Structures are given as C-alpha cells and as structure tokens.
Amino acid sequence: MAPPLPLIPPSALEAELNTLPSGKPRRPPLVLTDCALKELVQYKCNIDKPVTRGARPVIYCEPVVRLIRQCANGVHVETTAWEGWKAGQERERVLEKKT
Asked: 74 lies in a domain?
C-alpha cells in the first residue's frame, strides 16, 4: 500500500507545486491556468444485497468526475477542488470590480 499523501488546501496548491521535494523552487514555475484541463471519469459502485435468498444483488454505479491539469513539462495534477476554489475567487474579484 502506498504511503498516505498530505492534504493540500486548494489555496496552497500552486505554491506547493512550485516547491520541489528538496525545498528548492521549481524552474520555470508552474501556472496551473496555463496547463491543459483534462477530465477523467471514474465510477464508484455499491452492491445492494438481495432481500430474498437466491436473488441477484443489485449494483449501483455513479460517475465521479475528476479534473486534471496537464502541464507542458509532463506534470499532471488533480485539480478538482482547486477548479471550484479558483472559480469562486474569480467570481469574488468580478463582484468587487462592479461595486
């Protein structure tokens, strides 16, 4: 089993990406909005056990959409939470300009 990864809040994602594991800054720095946006659909499935013996179980699957940024230097980053956070930041910025 892979070791657990640290959780990075969306507001700190770009800063974390631009710091290498050695602590040195990434050159050139990544700007996530400059990277191609890709979509990955996975499925989460649950099985409902049958009520009556001998009946077949019912399997329910629902899509789980993940958003990924693919940068030119080969870095791939899941940005599902970051995309929503960034859109909220942009909305706030636009509203501030209007007032």
From this structure: yes
Go through 53-86 and write b for each residue having 16 or more CB atoms within 10 A of its CB, e for each that does not.
eeeeeeeeeeeeeebbbeeeeeeebebeebbeeb
Number of domains in the chain: 1
| Structural domain span for residue 89 | 35-98
Q: Is residue 8 part of a domain?
A: no
The sign of the CA dihedral 13, 17, 20, 25 is negative
Global pTM value: 0.77
What gap in Å lies between CA 75 and CA 78, rounded to an integer? 10
Give, in degrees to the nearest 5, the angle at Cα 82 between 21 and 75.
40
Distances (CA, A) of 51 to 34, 44, 47, 57: 52, 22, 12, 9
What digits encode the pLDDT tens for the residues 3-43?
Answer: 888 889 999 999 999 999 899 999 999 999 999 999 999 99
